[in-house]
């Protein structure tokens, strides 16, 4: 590099936790190459935008962020603008035509090319090491990349490629690295955690991985996300039940419950099999919190199919739930079905289910009042310390609010405290410290 002062780099990360991990890996590489990381793009020489291209809203956010950064470059506030990630991987040719202000576009795994363009080099000896962008007490750990599932609505394989598991020893190494950074909660993520190991070992080895991580004792909480319901290895439940470090929690996106919709979605599972799996989870792991996500407004979701979904939510009472509107994605197999359900109907269906879920969540939270719970403190917001129980993932689930006045000194953010639940709301619990 010709410059005499270190290059200042800001990375703007959009989208899911998988993108967050990718940005953290890149940040570690940039740091080792002598490039200065800054949080504020306004203080940077180069801005790298790690985009999301999954659904319409995410794509719109990514494009708007690129346009804002392009204006910064036009005004001379930054020197260089790079765009990477899923949107860039999927629409690079179109973006290059429409956004000439961007200096270069990169795909989802083009770390070496990004570093080379900045005068650095990719250090393979740093594999498994990251620069945590969030508070270090909680960290995501990606156990595989890509996806082999044929879901009709999903564009992830177009952007992330085929399923590719990390070796168990590499995951354990990364967990040890996170431990050195002070991580107390590891959140296991992938496009499909259920299929972990199938490509490497010829069999699903998620149960073994969970037990190995738990026995390594590099985190006090290990949380499992994004488990695909079809071909879920039931031995995973035994691990969740037996190992103290494994949270009694699982995120399992079922997307729908009506058989005709599931078949069109190409989910590889029926309503009966889905319900049997969820019941097995509750039977084999007493007290487990089940989180799921649903899609409403899929092209063949009739009024009757939606009612089937609504009734399932009402009867089964999932602990945590998110609902997304169907987004028609080009080059997916559902593209040919069009997008016949009006947007306002999709919103009505989403709101109906979420109103139902609010009532369910309120009742379940009220059952916690008076109980003693272990809470991991994430932050301080105003007069409250904000934390979570083992039944709640970061960013998406319930929070526990403890008055700052309950602490004898500074709030020990990033640490565990014992609390007594004193009050319950739809998505929050209020508590005091257990003395």
Which features does this protein show?
435 residues, alpha/beta, six-stranded parallel sheet, five-stranded parallel sheet, 18 strands, 36% helix, 22% strand
Assembly annotation: single chain
Radius of gyration from CA coordinates: 22 Å
Give the neighbour order of strands across the main sheet.
Answer: 6-9-10-11-12-13
Strand content: 15-25%
Helix amount = 25-40%
- The count of β-strands is 18
- Report mean pLDDT, rounded to a whole number: 93
* Global geometry: globular
Q: Report the sheet with the most strands, covering strand number, pairing sense and barrel closure.
A: 6 strands, parallel
Write a concise synopsis of the structure shown.
The chain is an alpha/beta fold and 435 residues long.
Can you tell me about this structure?
The protein has 435 residues and is α/β, with parallel strands linked by helices. Helix content is 36%, strand content 22%. The chain is built from 13 helices and 18 strands. The protein has helices at residues 17-32, 56-74, 86-98, 111-117, 156-160, 168-180, 198-201, 206-216, 235-242, 259-265, 271-284, 303-316, 343-366; strands at 8-13, 36-37, 46-51, 80-85, 104-105, 138-142, 144-145, 164-165, 185-189, 221-224, 246-251, 289-296, 320-325, 372-381, 384-388, 399-403, 416-424, 428-433. The strands form four sheets. A six-stranded parallel beta sheet has the order 6-9-10-11-12-13. Strands 2-1-3-4-5 form a five-stranded parallel beta sheet, sandwiched between helices. It has a five-stranded mixed beta barrel with strand order 14-15-16-18-17. Strand 12 (289-296), helix 12 (303-316) and strand 13 (320-325) form a beta-alpha-beta unit. The longest helix has 24 residues, at 343-366. The termini are far apart.
């Amino acid at each position: 590099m010709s410059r005499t002062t270190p290059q200042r780099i800001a990375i703007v990360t959009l989208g899911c936790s998988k993108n967050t991990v990718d940005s953290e890996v890149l940040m570690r590489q940039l740091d080792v190459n002598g490039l200065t990381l800054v949080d504020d793009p306004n203080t940077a020489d180069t801005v790298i935008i790690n985009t999301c291209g999954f659904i319409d809203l995410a794509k719109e956010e990514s494009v708007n962020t690129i346009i804002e950064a392009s204006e910064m470059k036009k005004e001379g506030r930054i020197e260089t603008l790079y765009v990477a990630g899923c949107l860039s991987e999927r629409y690079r040719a179109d973006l290059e035509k429409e956004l000439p202000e961007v200096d270069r576009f990169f795909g989802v795994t083009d770390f070496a090319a990004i570093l080379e363009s900045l005068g650095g080099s990719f250090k393979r000896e740093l594999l498994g090491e990251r620069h945590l962008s969030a508070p270090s007490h909680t960290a995501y750990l990606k156990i595989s990349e890509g996806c082999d599932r044929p879901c009709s609505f999903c564009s992830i394989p177009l952007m992330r490629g085929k399923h590719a598991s990390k070796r168990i020893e590499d995951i354990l190494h990364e967990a040890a690295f996170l431990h050195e950074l002070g991580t107390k909660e590891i959140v296991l993520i992938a496009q499909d955690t259920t299929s972990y190991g199938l490509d490497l070992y010829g069999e699903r080895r998620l149960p073994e991985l969970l037990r190995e991580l738990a026995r390594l004792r590099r985190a006090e909480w290990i949380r499992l996300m994004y488990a695909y319901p079809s071909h879920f290895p039931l031995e995973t439940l035994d691990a969740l039940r037996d190992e103290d470090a494994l949270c009694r929690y699982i995120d399992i996106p079922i997307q729908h419950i009506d058989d005709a919709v599931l078949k069109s979605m190409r989910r590889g599972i029926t309503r009966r099999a889905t319900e049997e799996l969820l019941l097995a989870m509750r039977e084999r792991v007493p007290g487990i919190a089940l989180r799921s996500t649903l899609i409403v407004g899929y092209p063949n979701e009739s009024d009757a199919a939606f009612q089937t979904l609504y009734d399932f939510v009402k009867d089964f009472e999932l602990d945590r739930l998110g609902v997304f509107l169907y987004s028609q994605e080009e080059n997916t197999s559902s593209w040919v079905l069009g997008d016949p359900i009006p947007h306002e109907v999709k919103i009505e269906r989403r709101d109906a289910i979420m109103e139902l879920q609010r009532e369910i969540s309120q009742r379940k939270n009220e059952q916690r009042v008076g109980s003693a719970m272990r809470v991991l403190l994430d932050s301080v917001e105003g007069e409250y310390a904000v934390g979570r129980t083992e039944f709640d993932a970061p960013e998406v689930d319930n929070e526990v609010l403890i008055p700052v006045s309950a602490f004898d000194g500074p709030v020990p953010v990033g640490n565990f405290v014992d609390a007594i639940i004193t009050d319950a709301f739809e998505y929050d619990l209020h508590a005091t410290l257990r003395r």
